[in-house]
Design goal:
alpha/beta, nine-stranded mixed β-sheet
């Protein structure tokens, strides 16, 4: 049976077996929320058949979100092979998840059709010119889709109506790249939205989130560790990452303990290896 090793080397978590899919978080920005810096991560999935980028972060400032004091680390300014990306997935189209879409003109960008409709039609939903950047080519998705063997797009409504996550399945427990399906660990510890409940029903080994430095793990496996690293503040469900309402404080669940923001961030990857992985 495959398992995650209890230690890691150079920030890389490994499941032992022959073939591999690697998930690597890349920090692209920080936002100010209730006086605290909140990281923004995108995730690269190296699959045997393609290199997939989940969300694209931000590449420039905009007056509409100036009060969030964005500090940017655009992919275009990092040692990042933009041309090496074969597929882009937008978990949703809020500004901090689609602001780099223009870097991938001509590359297929998979997004739920309802999410694309909302971003194009609703005021104060996102920064529309970033959604409609020249050359951007969307592939609207209706419901679940097998993107590649072992990679599945799954609707996860809650944060937005058209939110989706990427589920990586290689024979063992799945790993999820979740975007904002949860903004902090406590929302998966005690799920409420349809999307959070759907992710928990998958019984994932790990869930990578856009605004946490490390992946979430089920409390049954590491409850003490997760509780010690929870945030004291996060975005309120109705106001998260929108242009209109600003971030407001939301109380963590009873027993949650605040944890200091790391200035280093998370620089490692997670390698999934399975004998059943596609070739």
């Amino acid at each position: 049976m495959t398992h995650i090793s209890t230690h890691h080397r150079s920030g890389r978590y490994t499941m032992n077996a022959p073939a591999s899919i690697t998930i690597t978080p890349v920090r692209v920005a920080d936002l100010l929320a209730e006086g605290e810096r909140m990281p923004v991560y995108v995730h690269v999935i190296d699959h045997p058949d393609a290199r997939v980028l989940v969300d694209t972060g931000m590449t420039e400032l905009h007056p509409a979100v100036a009060d969030l004091d964005p500090r940017l680390r655009p992919l275009s300014k990092q040692d990042f092979d933009l041309a090496g990306i074969d597929i882009v997935v937008n978990t949703h189209l809020h500004f901090d998840h689609c602001g780099g879409n223009h870097l991938f003109a001509g590359t297929p960008i998979y997004v739920q059709r309802g999410e694309l409709d909302d971003a194009r039609s609703q005021d104060d939903y996102t920064i529309r010119e970033w959604v409609e950047a020249p050359g951007v080519r969307y592939v609207p998705v209706d419901g679940e889709l097998e993107l590649l063997p072992g990679l599945r797009l799954v609707p996860a409504p809650g944060h937005t109506r058209g939110m989706q996550v990427v589920v990586v399945e290689t024979g063992g427990r799945p790993v999820v790249v979740g975007g904002d399906v949860a903004v902090w660990f406590g929302e998966l510890d005690e799920p409420h939205t349809e999307g959070q409940l759907r992710v928990r029903a998958l019984d994932p080994e790990l869930v990578w989130l856009a605004h946490e430095h490390e992946p979430w793990r089920p409390r049954s496996a590491s409850g003490v560790l997760q509780a010690g690293r929870r945030r004291r503040r996060c975005f309120d469900e109705a106001a998260r990452m929108t242009i209109g309402p600003r971030p407001v404080k939301a109380k963590p669940p009873v027993g949650a303990v605040g944890w200091p923001q790391s200035s280093r961030g998370w620089s490692g990857g997670f390698e999934i290896q399975s004998a059943a992985a596609p070739t």
